[in-house]
Amino acid sequence: MEIVEVGPRDGLQNEKKVLSTSEKVAYIELLIRAGLKRIEAVSFARADKVPQMADAEGVMDAVPRLDGVSYIGLVMNDRGLTRAIATEVDEANFVVVTTDTFSKRNQGTSVDEALAQLEPMVMRAQENGIKTTVTIAASFGCPFEGEVSTAQVMRIVEASHALNVDEIALGDTIGVGTPSDVRRLVEATRSITDKKLRLHLHNTRNTGYANAITGYDMGVEALDSAAGGIGGCPFAPNATGNIGTEDLFYLLSRSGVSLGIDFERLVEASLFITDRLEISAPAQLSRAGLFPSASSR
User: Fold this and answer.
1) Which of 38, 57, 109, 232 could form a disulfide linkage to 239, CB 3.0–4.6 angstroms apart?
2) Which DSSP string do the residues of the chain spell out, in sequence order?
């Protein structure tokens, strides 16, 4: 099981305060010291749409390049991919939204147009040695069109599988999913592809952690989270924070999963970023702390 740390991207993109490049890099360095190896560091979105991510090139130029640490950049279109290639990201995370209304708000295209653009972008990323993920946003429900059918999600899964991407992520962008939804979508995805599967979960309605452990129990290989539980989607109403990395760490480690993460350093990263953002962390474990170890019981 991998934890993919999305705090520097999805965590910061919906916060009101825009941090400096040096603050973002310091945050990433703290996350690395805590043992996190896959970090979604930047988004190559338009600066006028997502000003929090305007300095993607500056961040990627300044982050430490270390063996075993993989930096992910969110890519919305071909121009974004050109920027991502130039900054030498290790992975590109392409987004396809399940509904036309949300897709047009998020990246200015219909679903069909997004799928048509996906193939040449994935191929170009692969030709440049960049690993590829397709995140299927609003897999669990759309803030504008409501329920999303399994068939619609699987249509995008099938297209992604055909492109031989490295990983497929099911995104609960607005935090409406429940464990039964996770089981439904994971089972349907597994019937189509054996590609590495990842879940991007939000805790908007307090189901994020139940969904995460359900995904783990079903053999999902990676889970997204953000230190402090910060963030959300700026193009979806009320799409509040990601599941918190420290809370997910507690849930998984108490379930017997070895993650290679230093909890104290993870809390240090969470407190650093929430202090810079001038907010209280939605995640709980930075305040509650770990339960005594098994040896003390």
Assistant:
1) 232
2) -EEEE-IIIIITTT-SSPPPHHHHHHHHHHHHHTT--EEEEEE---TTT-GGGTTHHHHHHHS---TT-EEEEEE-SHHHHHHHHHHT-SEEEEEEESSHHHHHHHHSS-HHHHHHHHHHHHHHHHHTT-EEEEEEETSS-BTTTB---HHHHHHHHHHHHHTT-SEEEEEETTS---HHHHHHHHHHHHTT--SEEEEEEB-TTS-HHHHHHHHHHTT--EEEEBGGG----TTSTT--PBPBHHHHHHHHHTTT------HHHHHHHHHHHHHHHTS--S-SHHHH-PPPPGGG-
